Automatic annotation (TrEMBL):
One of its GO terms (biological process) is transcription by RNA polymerase II. Belongs to the CCDC124 family. The lineage of its organism: Eukaryota, Fungi, Dikarya, Basidiomycota, Ustilaginomycotina. It holds the Pfam family Ccdc124. It comes from Tilletiaria anomala (strain ATCC 24038 / CBS 436.72 / UBC 951). This is DUF1014-domain-containing protein.
Length: 119
């Protein structure tokens, strides 16, 4: 068990709260979280990018006036590569992964977060 957690930014603080308030990692709790893991992020990439592009285009045009549409699209694509909405930036497993592999991926993610925030 972790004795204390420290966070230096808002994302780390949210992760620390999640670690501190989660229930024990029994099989039932992990089973419900394992069902939420995305097995096919490539299927959702195009739709997620289109939604991101529609939402962020006015901001990019405001920051960079006078750019052509293709230049704006290039900027948006580069930003989307780092965005949390990108399905490839979320927890994924192989399409044929079983429940045990999904649970192992969740446990590994939890341990990595605990190692990063633990002191």
């Amino acid at each position: 068990m972790i004795s204390s957690l420290s966070a230096s930014n808002i994302d780390d603080a949210i992760d620390a709260i999640d670690l501190a308030t989660e229930k024990t990692w029994d099989k039932a709790a992990m089973g419900s979280k394992a069902a939420q893991i995305d097995s096919h992020p490539e299927r959702r990439f195009k739709a997620a990018f289109e939604a991101y592009k529609e939402r962020e285009t006015p901001n990019v045009k405001k920051e960079h006036p006078g750019l052509r549409k293709t230049q704006v699209d290039d900027i948006l694509y580069k930003q989307f590569q780092k965005a949390p909405e990108n399905p490839f930036n979320q927890l994924t497993v192989a399409y044929d992964a079983g429940k045990t592999e999904k649970m192992a991926a969740l446990q590994a993610t939890r341990e990595e977060t605990a190692k990063r925030l633990g002191s």
